[in-house]
Each structure stands twice: as C-alpha cells, then as structure tokens.
Recover the amino acids of this structure.
C-alpha cells in the first residue's frame, strides 16, 4: 500500500514539475528565436515571415532531443529511489 | 509593526526549515555499541510524530515493541560532522521507515539489529562503528534518532565525508536558481504582457469614466438653482 501511495503521489508531483519545465524550456526557445530574428532584421521585418520562422524553429525544437530529455524528471527520481533502497538495505 | 511581523514570520520559517533538515538529513556518529534491547512503546499523540512505523510487513497498532541500540559515542558538532573528544551515551531506535517518510526506504531493521549485536564490544576491547542515523534524542518527549546503517571501523578517529548532504545542498542551490529563472521567464513572457494589457484597459476605462462623470455632472448642474439676479 505504501508503495502504491508513493507511486501515485510521486507521479503527480513529478508531473507538476515536468509540465513546469516543459513550458519553461519552450518559452526559452521561443524567446531565443524571436531575439535571433530581431537581430537579423533590425527594422522588424515581415510579420508573417517572422511568425513562419518562429513556428519552424519551434517545430525543429519539438522534433529534437531536448524535449525528450525533460522526461528524465521521471527517470532520475525513480533511479534514486531504487538506489537508496539498495544502499539502505544492502547487507 | 508590519516590518517586525514580516521579520518574525521569516525567522519562524527559517527555524522550521532548519529544524526539518536537521531532523531528516542523515548524520554520522562514531560509537561503541554496548547492548541492544527491545522495549514496548506506548505512544502519545505527540511523540508518535517522531516515530516512523511498525515493520513494513506488519500492521500498525497504537502500541508495539521497538528495537533500541544502546551506545557510547563520541560527541559531535555541526550537524554531526566535526568530532570532539568527549563521550556520552546515546540510544538509537531501529525502525523501518517504509516507503514514505522520511525517504530512507529502510526495511531491514531486523538485519540492522543483528549487525548491531554482532558489533557489541566491552571497554578495553572496543569495536568502533559509524552509525548513520536521522532524528533527535529528547528525554522529555521520549524520542530517539533512528539508526539507518552500522559500519564497523578500525578506530574512533575516522573521517566521514557526508556525500549525501553535499549533493543534497548542491541540488538545493541548483533548484533555487532554476526555479528563480523559471519564475522570471514566466513573469517576463506571460504575466507582464497581460498586466500591461490590463493596465492599458484600466486606463481607458478610467478615461471613459471621467468623461461620463463630466457629462453627468453637467446635467446635474443644470438642475441647480441659478444664482438670483
């Protein structure tokens, strides 16, 4: 029962962290793209082209490995729990 | 007044966090085990807080037997990291923490008790051990620190490096800066633009209200009696 409680509440807590980091990472990437565009087009450039550029950049970001690395938020605590379990109870 | 209140609340939070960490984080004692025993504990609702749980496979009752480890230990300072020369007695409890809190995931209390018994020694032929534990000893409330691990060592002057605590505090610092960065990003990108919008709308509403009030006032004024000629 205790294990079930740990898994359920641990999953909920980690999901909150996961979502927060997911949004943060996306937001940072979008800001970077915006700044890059603005640096290349000091006059602002075409608004449609700017939007297309950022959309394409975000698509590339989601296809890359970085958003998948955020899944480590679930993996690392699980590994830590198992590691602690072994270290504490090793005889 | 408000300033003092704010300072007091902050101090209270700080003391609480320090106390919590001091209670929960692992500490290491160099000790000599003198005996082990089992006593029956009848918890009060207060000191029950400071005990973990019955053996993980058993059921939880209000009264149960508890394993204790009696020792003579080197006294320590500063979260238990700096040894001193003086000695004193210390009694540890030895309970499973199970799956939840504090997260030591300890299920091997019986084995630990056997290890403790195997390392008992008499004065003159000391077998020193390092006892990893968390928790506090308090005589008035009858609470004991919970032993997590026992490791025999050659002599009493061992240097224990608290790896877990080092990594833990490094992680806390990292988490602090990460959360701060996240919060700033959130404010800059999500809250501030909305607030700016709200501010502009508010200003516009204010202007409109001003105009409307001006009109109402002019209308009301028209009902005032004209100054007598």
């Amino acid at each position: 029962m205790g294990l079930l409680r740990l898994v359920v509440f641990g999953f909920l807590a980690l999901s909150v962290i996961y979502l927060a980091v997911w949004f943060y990472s996306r937001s940072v990437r979008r800001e970077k793209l915006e700044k890059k565009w603005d640096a290349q087009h000091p006059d602002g450039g075409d608004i449609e082209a700017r939007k297309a550029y950022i959309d394409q950049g975000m698509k590339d970001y989601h296809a890359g490995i970085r958003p998948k690395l955020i899944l480590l938020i679930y993996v690392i605590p699980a590994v830590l729990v198992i590691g602690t379990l072994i270290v504490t109870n090793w005889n | 007044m408000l300033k003092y209140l704010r300072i007091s609340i902050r101090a209270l939070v700080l003391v609480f966090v320090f106390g919590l960490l001091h209670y929960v984080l692992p500490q290491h004692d160099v000790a000599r085990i003198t005996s082990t025993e089992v006593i029956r504990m009848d918890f009060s609702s207060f000191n029950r807080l400071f005990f973990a749980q019955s053996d993980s496979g058993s059921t939880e009752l209000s009264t149960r037997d508890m394993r204790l480890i009696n020792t003579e230990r080197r006294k320590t300072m500063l979260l238990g990291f700096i040894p001193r020369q003086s000695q004193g007695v210390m009694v540890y409890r030895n309970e499973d923490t199970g799956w939840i809190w504090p997260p030591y995931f300890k299920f091997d209390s019986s084995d630990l008790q056997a290890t403790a018994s195997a390392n008992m020694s008499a004065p003159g032929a000391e077998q020193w051990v390092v006892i990893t534990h968390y928790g506090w000893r308090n005589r008035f409330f009858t609470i004991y620190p919970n032993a997590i691990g026992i490791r025999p060592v050659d002599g009493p002057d061992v240097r224990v490096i608290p790896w877990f605590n080092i990594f833990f505090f490094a992680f806390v610092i990292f988490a602090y800066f990460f959360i701060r960065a996240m919060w700033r990003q959130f404010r800059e990108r999500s809250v501030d633009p909305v607030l700016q919008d709200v501010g502009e709308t508010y200003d516009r509403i204010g202007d409109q209200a001003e105009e409307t009030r001006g009109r109402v006032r002019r209308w009301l004024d028209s009902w005032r009696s004209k100054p007598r000629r």
Chain A has one domain: 2-89. Residues 69 and 75 of chain A are 10 Å apart (CA to CA).
